[in-house]
Amino acid sequence: MIDSQRRALMGRALAAALLPTAWPALAAEAWPNRPVRWIVPYLAGTGPDITARILAEAVSPILGQPIIIDNKGGVGGNLGARLAAKTMPDGYTWIYSAAPMAANMHMYKVPGYDVLKDFRHVTRISASDIVLLVNAKSSVSSLKDLTARMRAAPGKLDYASGGVGTPSHLGAELLLNSLDVHATHVPYKGASELLNAVLGDQVQFGMPIFGVAYPHIQAGKLKPLAVAGSMRNPLLPDVPTLTELGVRGVELTSWGGVSLSAGTPDVIAERVRTAFDAALKQAKVREQIEANGANVRPSVNSQEYVQDFVKEMAFTQAMMKVAKLEPL
Q1: What is the pLDDT of residue 211?
Q2: How far, in Å, CA of 12 to CA of 18, rounded?
Q3: How far apart are CA 69 and CA 215, in angstroms?
Q4: What is the CA radius of gyration of the chain?
Q5: Residues 109 and 140 in one domain
Q6: Mean pLDDT confidence for 118-126
Q7: Cα separation of 258 and 272, whole Å?
Q8: Is 64 in the same domain as 98?
Q9: N or C: which end of the chain has fewer CB within 10 A?
Q10: Is 237 among the domain residues?
């Protein structure tokens, strides 16, 4: 009798000891069984937002659950990243991770998260050029014109960015440094506000990501002066690269993908990656993303995507020294 009671107690103790590790494993195997929240740390209508919505619609039927886009723009993407970093590692909250999250590790003294420690980076989705542009009504018609104006009135011209540390900010600062001219930085909360500032003549120029600017270029409301890429963008074959115009060292690409909270189980991370791989192979999805000016570039594996962040951090640090920028 005593032995049987002892065995029963030992069995219950063993079950209790195993429960903390067994339960997450069981939950991971059942994932997903409810809607997924995808935090986009940028405003609605921006390139990342458009891309995320295209992918959410394609990935949802693959996983069998709704994917709800939650825009949390502000502070150069830090606001949404901080929020995502604190979520449970259960696979039900994703973040549209991108180059600014890496740049902010150096652009801000206290970004509020560690881009390498607080997230499990799953896969890159796409990459987009950066385009230098002005209002279509502007008398500025070339980089040469814009440079002449900045030299004639140092610091008097304003340029808009989507926030400190975003590609639109870093790109402009690199360009100004390379040209040895000065302009005043006016940061906004995202690329859509950047474009509104240029469209409304509140600033003289900007360098947004190609995808969010392209519809306005097509509509004849914005005038592209140059592309900050290694080659001309196929959607704007007549617009030269900065390199062609004699500007060296300003070849920029903005990239983005999907990441989860650090500690998310392997089985969930792999299912997310598999779902995105399948979605990005669909011709319709690729066409929709590329129609907005981005290039579909899924990473070979998660480690390759992690290296994107590592490289971007090093690039930002080097750029800040060249442009003499101090962390905020």
Answers
A1: 81
A2: 10
A3: 22
A4: 23
A5: no
A6: 97
A7: 9
A8: yes
A9: N
A10: no
| Pair of tokens at residue 288 | 């929709």
Q: Which helix (H) or strand (E) holds 13?
A: helix 2-30
Residue 234 lies in a domain: no
Placement of tokens 């992690």 in the chain? 306
In angstroms, the Cα distances linking 133 to 4, 10, 188 are 81, 72, 16
3-state secondary structure of 31: coil
- Integer Cα distance of 92 and 67 in angstroms: 9
Amino acid 13: pLDDT:
43
Give the E-state strand segments of the chain in sequence order: 36-40, 67-71, 93-98, 119-129, 131-135, 158-161, 184-187, 205-206, 222-227, 253-261, 294-296
Tell me how far CA of residue 169 lies from CA of 155, 175, 264, 318, in angstroms. 16, 10, 32, 15
Residue-wise pLDDT for 284-309, tens only, equals: 999 999 887 788 999 999 999 999 99
Of 193, 227, 261, which residue sits at a domain end? Answer: 227
Classify 181 as helix, strand or coil. coil
% of the chain with per-residue pLDDT over 70: 92
Query: Contact at 8 Å (CB) between 297 and 127?
Result: yes
Please, which residues have CB within 8 angstroms of residue 290's CB and are 6 or more apart in sequence? 296
Distance, in Å, from the CA atom of 280 to the CA atom of 297, rounded to the nearest integer, reads: 9
pTM value > 0.85: no
- Are the C-beta atoms of residues 86 and 302 closer than 8 Å to each other? no
Count the domains in the chain. Answer: 2
Largest CA distance in the chain: 98
User: In CATH, what number is assigned to the domain containing residue 311?
Assistant: 3.40.190.150
Contact 117, 263 (CB under 8 A): no
**Which pLDDT band, with edges at 50, 70 and 90, does 26 fall under?**
low
Looking at residue 15, what is its pLDDT? 43
CA distance 89 to 252: 32
95 has pLDDT over 70: yes
Strand partners, 260: 94, 120
Pairing relationship of beta strands 119-129 and 131-135 according to DSSP bridges: unpaired
**In this structure, what is the dihedral angle of CA atoms 94, 100, 103, 109, given to the nearest 10 degrees?**
-80
